[in-house]
Amino acid sequence: MSHRMTKILGLLLVVTFSLKTAGAPQAAGHPVQVVLLAGQSNMGGAGNYEELTSSVIERVQKVSSRVNVSLGGRKPQPLSYEVSKFHQDKYGIDKKFGPELFVGLTLAEKYPEREYLLIKTVQGGTSLYGAWSSQWRAEKAKRVERGSVKQNLQLYTLHLTNVRSNLARLEQDARLHHIIGMLWMQGENDAAKEVAARSYKDNLLRLINGYRSELEVSTMPFVIGQINSTYGRYPSGPDMVRAAMADVTNMLPNTALISTLTDSSWHDYPKHSDNVHYNTLGQTRLGIAFAETLNSLTNPQLDTSNK
Questions:
Q1: Exposed/middle/buried for 45, CB within 10 Å: 0-12, 13-18, 19+?
Q2: In Å, what is the CA distance from 164 to each residue of 167, 218, 301?
């Protein structure tokens, strides 16, 4: 074979290889970084995507090919907003987002060589004593949950099912994966009732240990968003739940707390006029805080923020 023919065949091989790999994910050589998110309405989110600046939206779109989100067990979709009739009716928000938007954006920009999968299961107005209990029992759920639907929800089990189905999907695609942590924003409903508030610490300890055991990640980082609710008929409840959250982070390794203020001006994490749900700025700050705090647990030698 002539030298010229050998050179032509070599070029053809290069072109063929380039065509085969052009559509491959940018971070295909790295394990997919998996983040779990769970809780009630403030984890669900009431941020208004259309209030974000065009530059922020461009940043989200730029990383969306590396960040997928599975909501409620559904097939993962690129990082973006959700459409919710409830939020349209209550807040006039056509495109809403929760903490996952800025969790995904913050992590993806910090680590541009990595891909992320965020797996989120939420249900507004539910309790760790009831629907979220890792030791769910019907009689307990009936004591604290409103309505037959919520009284029969087993959200801890449902979230684990959603996690496992997503991990199985990655494995079917021959993708390595690594669970880097879990984010928890829940507790307002427990603060509203004495039996749930008094047992919140024990229930949260069981929940964290349950996730770590079920997923076989004994040191899985766990970040807790501290509630600052003021509603409910049990006036001591919010302080009990807030203190329980802080106590748990001091009792278990690889846990951290995102502290919040109870000042009704909500200047740390701003809220809508209902004084319950975080608005666009509040959700933005919450998502960033979750991402930075998680990063401080997973990469303590590199990032010491929010410790």
A1: buried
A2: 5, 17, 30
Asked if 119 contacts 168 with a C-beta cutoff of 8 angstroms, the reply is no
Whether pLDDT at 23 is above 70 = no
- Sequence-ordered strand ranges (E) for the chain: 32-39, 47-48, 67-71, 77-78, 96-97, 116-122, 177-185, 222-225, 255-258
From its phi and psi, is residue 270 left (phi > 0), alpha (psi between -120 and 50) or beta? beta
Q: Higher confidence at residue 238 or residue 85?
A: 238
Per-residue pLDDT, 27 = 44
What is the overall mean pLDDT for the chain? 90
Q: What is the DSSP letter of 287?
A: H
Residue of 193, 180, 158, 178 whose CA lies nearest to 74 = 158
CA distances from 15 to 2, 23, 75, 113, 195 (A): 20, 14, 34, 24, 67
